Amino acid sequence: MKLVNKILRGDVGAASRLMKDIEDEAPDATDELKKLYPHTGKAYVVGVTGAPGVGKSTLIDTLIKVFCQGAMKVGVIAIDPSSPFTGGAILGDRIRMKYFSKDQSVFIRSIATRGWTGGLSKHTLSMIHVMDAMGKDIVLVETVGSGQVEIDITKIADTSIVALCPGGGDEIQTMKGGILEAADILVVNKADREGADDLKLKLEIMINRRIYSPDQWKPGVFLTQASNGAGVAELMEEIFRHKDFLITSGGLRANREKRARIGLHEAIRSYVENYISEKIANNTYLDNLISDIAERKTDPYSAVSEITDKLIGTTIK
Ligand SMILES: Nc1nc2c(ncn2[C@@H]2O[C@H](COP(=O)(O)OP(=O)(O)OP(=O)(O)O)[C@@H](O)[C@H]2O)c(=O)[nH]1
Ligand SMILES: [Mg+2]
Q: Which residues contact 95 (CB under 8 A, 6 or more apart)?
């Protein structure tokens, strides 16, 4: 529990330590998270997703800079990043060298998906809680782009940004992948490239074909050039416009519940899995069950019933 107090003071070292324990699924991490949880719920979560190479990390770098200019504290979680962050020109080389800064206003952390589906790591929520408890006003989450839109981020983020760029090749495919349901804000990055205006127009036509009721959020399309920061201040303003909309429409509270639901399900899943592996003292029991399932002597569903029946008040030897 010793890390919690330090994290609440914004201590980067303590936060890094807990995040590592969360990723390693160390038993102590759960106790720390329990203590931390009452201090969370204030950070605003922004998801940035899109196909590989559209400029998500560059965009986040620039967003960090504009948020910091607005005296906001920023946390960044990059899931499976293939490109490094610079931390925004405001922080420059310090971040580039260490990957996170001693400066308490920005904290960047990358995590692996470890096979979790939909481009999100199962630890993403816990990581967000740590940054939230550190006092970050904004937590930006970059999810790995697989060419298809990562719909999953919308379950976690308050504002979901879907980034595209001209000549991406998979534009149309991405559009089919439920992009309009997934995005609160659409960004056409690499505005300096040919076709950017066209792509923006195409997206706007798609949006205008849909019917939005007055109480529904209608996504806007923003042109940015992340590499030099053009359009990024306007993007930040749009994020805050969406936040205001969520506050007045009750959407912010709904998002908190959405995250609470995911958090509970994840806690149940990991608790039950840990409980089972602790209680099953003999690994060959599971191995035998697995080969029985493979040989069709039983099925995974009956195997679960067998395990849970046996586990009530006992230990499987
Ligand atoms: N021309 C141009 N290039 C850009 C712009 N923004 C980013 N880039 C470049 O695009 C490349 C990819 O940018 P990243 O920010 O790494 O893209 P990403 O979406 O994070 O990529 P992954 O993390 O691999 O999915 C880099 O070489 C950037 O310098 C832009 O506005 N215009
Ligand atoms: Mg990236």
A: 85, 86, 87, 88, 101, 106, 108
**Domain containing 296: what range?**
261-311
157 or 178, greater pLDDT: 157
Last residue of a domain, one of 227, 249, 271: 249
Atom of ligand 1 nearest to the CA of 83: 16
Q: Which atom of ligand 1 is nearest to the CA of 54?
A: 19
Cα 57 to ligand 1 centre (Å): 7
**Statement to judge: residues 189 and 118 lie in one domain:** yes
Same domain for 178 and 303, yes or no, is: no
Question: Is there a single domain that holds both residue 304 and residue 215?
Answer: no
What is the pTM for the complete model shown? 0.86
Q: Which ligand is nearest to the CA of 56?
A: 1
Residue that the structure tokens 């709904």 belong to: 254
Q: Is residue 32 in a domain? A: no
Distances from the Cα of 81 to the Cαs of 51, 56, 110, 153, 244, in angstroms? 12, 10, 7, 15, 30
Same domain assignment for residues 93 and 187:
yes
140's enclosing H/E stretch is: strand 138-142
Q: What is the mean pLDDT of residues 131-149?
A: 81
- State the average pLDDT over residues 199-215: 90
d(CA 317, CA 111): 36
Torsion of CA 85, 156, 239, 146, to 10 degrees: 50
Nearest to 22 by CA among 36, 6, 11, 8: 36
The 10 Å Cβ neighbour count of residue 10 is 16
Backbone φ and ψ of 99, nearest 5°? 70, -20
Residue 72 located in a structural domain? yes
User: Atom 28 in ligand 1: which residue has the minimum CA distance?
Assistant: 55
**Same domain assignment for residues 183 and 288:** no
